Amino acid sequence: MSDNLPKNIYRNQVFDFVNAINTTKKDLIRESDNPVLMEKSYNPFLVNRALSYFIDTIMYSNEINGVKHIDSTLQNDYYLNSIRSGKRFSKWAKPVEDSNIESIQEYYKVSYMKALDISKILSKEQIDLIKTKIIKGGNHVQYQSVSGSEIKER
Questions:
Q1: Could you tell me where the beta strands, DSSP code E, fall in the chain?
Q2: In the chain, helix, strand, coil percent, each to 5?
Q3: C-alpha atoms less than 13 angstroms from C-alpha of 148 in its C-beta half-sphere
Q4: Is residue 145 within 8 Å of 128, Cβ to Cβ?
């Protein structure tokens, strides 16, 4: 991401590029008032990720992954001229947050992957004990008991 671009404009333009590739077939880089700025706002990784969610465009995305070194304009041209127009919508995959993993990470001061490994070894009671040991807060903090049945005030 370019340092001189506002973040909200940058995020919106990524989806504008994907919409142009999928539906309108408009070359946003060459047809803009400032092509240099538009090329800087083109993020090849996010466009590839967006197009990799669809069965009919995943192979195009894979081909571009093999030639990462090409310019953004060339990548955009490839997508515009290769992919058929069509309405494509999908939800982006997002990581699942697990409070058990976060608690293990904080307690043992380990990475996410190591916390996943540790969580496979620990029992439910041990994880509950870890959660009670890492409770943070000031006066009058409410927390749920280990059994999960009642809320106690500290």
A1: 142-144, 151-153
A2: 55, 5, 40
A3: 4
A4: no
Please tell me the distance from the alpha carbon of residue 89 to that of residue 51, in angstroms, as a whole number: 10
SS3 152: strand
How confident is the model over 118-131, as pLDDT tens digits? 999 999 999 999 98
Say whether pTM exceeds 0.85.
Answer: no
Express each pLDDT in 81-98 by its tens digit.
999 998 887 777 777 778
Q: What is the largest CA-CA distance in the chain?
A: 64
Cα–Cα distance measured from residue 25 to residue 139, given in angstroms and rounded to the nearest whole number: 59
Enter the DSSP assignment of 23.
I
CA distances from 41 to 8, 17, 27 (A): 11, 10, 14
